[in-house]
Amino acid sequence: MLFELVSLSDQINALNVFRYITFRTGGAIMTALLFVFLFGPAIIDVLRIKQGKGQPIREDGPQTHFAKRGTPTMGGLMILSGITVATLLWANLSNWYVWIVLFVTLSFGAIGLYDDYLKVTNGKTSGFAGKWRLLAEIAVAGIAAFAVMRFGSPGFSSSLTVPFFKTVIIPLGALFILIGVFVIVGAGNAVNLTDGLDGLAIVPVMIAAGTFGLIAYLTGNARFATYLQIHYVQGAGELAIICGAIIGAGLGFLWFNAPPAMIFMGDTGSLALGGALGAIAVATKHEIVLAIVGGLFVLETLSVIIQVASFKLTGRRVFRMAPLHHHFEQKGWHESTVVVRFWIISVVLALIGLATLKLR
Fold first, then answer.
1. What pLDDT, on a 0 to 100 scale, did the predictor assign at position 153?
2. What's the Cα-to-Cα distance from 308 to each of 183, 322, 323, 329, rounded to whole Å?
């Protein structure tokens, strides 16, 4: 919206600043942050009144979690509101990538919201039937992946790039849609599994968003892309603004989610944020890099897969409890210790992911 002011820069030279993605990304961070700060308390009060008992707590989970009974969920509404307002205000709305990522983010948020609603109303930790939820996610991700192919550069938009190799491009054609679906749906559910402790998921999400904000900016800039010998994706730089909005809204949410949490983001937030990261990775052609940057989410997901497979095949559990953060809680680690150490892992993985831009 504010990007349109660039058209008046001939008359008012100061308006030329809105042309720069870096300036508008900073504006998106502050807008989303202030929005959540200002409206967060009111949203929390409404959710607390509407939900009554708050988010159901796993009966087989760590005993320390029972003290969290009554904490409202659906805090993702705060995050999504901040992201949407900031993006619509600061992004170039003629850019298709912006709308594709927003579509995935809000659609996954709606799926998560319905899941949270069922949990709260039924008073159970199970919500939306897994099969139908997965089908809904696949449908949304499939539309997004097709749109990336449709509006991207012919040929290249349906290819898979490989980090550390500047000339390796794997043409996939229509099969790219399957890869896009896997990345987007996988990222959404991986973040969802990680969201189990106060502040555990939101900080790694912000770290990943900051990393992909830089990747989007460099990938969408022909000069920088040529210098770094990475593949140029026209228009992808605008996604840095959505990444900035995620960081700003995440910081605002963390203010209320810091231990002891006043609110949980719920599936409304975790599913949407993961889907957003997946969609940005697909749009910028850095799908494999997302597995590195979001390695913490991958580890959490693998811990669940390994646990289920091991129990079904051998009757034994590999971890004391899955996902992985509960395993360390059961080993005696304090919740805050698990959270901070997982944050450190996220920073290290983000640095490794950024290294792929230069090590080619």
1. 81
2. 22, 9, 11, 19
